[in-house]
Specification:
2 copies of one chain form a homodimer. Chain A is α/β, with parallel strands linked by helices. Chain A has helices at about 5-15, 30-35, 55-65, 80-85, 125-145, 165-180, 195, 200-205, 225-235, 260-280; strands spanning about 25, 45-50, 70-75, 100-105, 115, 150-155, 185, 215-220, 240-245, 250-255. In chain A, the strands form 3 sheets. In chain A, strands 7-6-8-5-4-9 form a 6-stranded mixed β-sheet, sandwiched between helices. In chain A, strands 1-2 form a two-stranded parallel sheet. In chain A, helix 6 links the parallel strand 6 (about 150-155) and strand 7. Chain A starts with a helix and ends in a 10-residue tail after the last helix.
Chain lengths: ~290, ~290
Amino acid sequence: MAHDGSVLEAIKAAYEYNIIDAILIGDKDKIIEESGKIGLNALNFEIIDEKNPAFAAKKAVELVSLGYADIVMKGFLETAIFLKAILNKETGIKKFDLLSHVAVFELPDLDRLIILTDAAMVMAPDLKEKLEIIKNALIVANSLGIECAKIAPICAVEVVNFNMPCTLDAAILSKMSDRGQIKNCIIDGPLALDNALYKEATLHKKIKSEVAGCADILLAPNIETGNAIYKSFAFTSRAKNSGILIGASAPVVLTSRSDSYETKLYSIALSILVSKTLGGLYVQDTFN
Amino acid sequence: MAHDGSVLEAIKAAYEYNIIDAILIGDKDKIIEESGKIGLNALNFEIIDEKNPAFAAKKAVELVSLGYADIVMKGFLETAIFLKAILNKETGIKKFDLLSHVAVFELPDLDRLIILTDAAMVMAPDLKEKLEIIKNALIVANSLGIECAKIAPICAVEVVNFNMPCTLDAAILSKMSDRGQIKNCIIDGPLALDNALYKEATLHKKIKSEVAGCADILLAPNIETGNAIYKSFAFTSRAKNSGILIGASAPVVLTSRSDSYETKLYSIALSILVSKTLGGLYVQDTFN
């Protein structure tokens, strides 16, 4: 459903950067009209005329299955309809156990990119789901050139507290990492957000950790925490950001209407990197 | 246990601003020594020599009970020992049903102060506890001159979702507010952090709400979300901030070692405003 001004704007920018080609699926007349408004010649692209959102989503997913497309991007349709096409057991493209949201931020005062998961997809992950979320995030880390990502399970404190279940999960994941049960990363938590991100915050508390102060991946304990961190980074700290879904055979760009045009562009760019990683053999090796 | 350099530094600044007088309880020799290091003459203040942390905390609380002090501030002792003295059923100063943490932020790009609760005290509040947290936060709002605070229960989404319990709580609290069961405020949620804080974020989603885009109080669904927002605002957005405990007969300054000297000073300043409100009759009228 590519007949959406803000989506077309991101497509235009990515096309002008010469990093993508696009197949536009949706209402052909509207696509041409909306493209015209932003100075984009839609006829540069293949256009598939399809006014029904469910059929349009199914078509997009099919193009990935057939190898004609490397990335799927959501346009002007309901998220539920879009996801249904991806997750469909017969015609969908779900590849891993879990579809999760992975965001990447360029924060002020930090010289590394920060990966945040999950801010938008998995609501209250249990330990097994946290492992799948980590696996998906490692694909993104690998795509960004991080070979051994440092993962901080985020809690409200940096000590195990029997009354705070996410601190127990954090301790368990850390020990699994120690024992080599999760490869290509170092997990150490519980950590609070400040001592995950900033060296100076770890000094006061004298935390001994290979992850504290230098985390690459923030693992949120629940969707509320993940979403609040996402919104605070993006809106309050004005950090550049991108977000995609991982778990399908292709990266999925599912930005929100409230996301800026830059966020949509960066999400497309991230998807390109990730689609190369997904094509490789890296994924199978992550877990024992 | 006032023999703590960073606490004494905040005391010194507040004293020089002429907004406090202090009674220093702790190891007298160390208090004088630490004060000397930062150019503070400890003999400006009454000093009570007490080396035992539990006794020192009990003494501080007693001074409030007897009307000799308006604010209690934590020094160099364990939080658990400090809180035990406050919550002690015979000699403590607990006044309301719940002791909760209330933080106040001056965020970039916003022309109003933002109150956040609970980032540090109540772990997984149920509905009844959320009401108490709101009551405590309204004391702070009132102290800041906000007569009818706009309260946003923060969730990951702005719609009710049966699989996300905090969205159900948000709906219930909102209706209680509609029916006048909670006075001196307007509660409307669920809201995500961006559409609670920023008008522009509400426009894309066409949210009709008296609170969206202009919330004064952010009610976190759990301590992990509250703490992550706190840390992101304070460390990533570099927002000026202060935090105190409400629920006792006096405001309690319980800053962390990792908090900056400014945060400690602002927390003292906030306590002064709140101690005036606590002396009034406002509190009793909040609930039907």
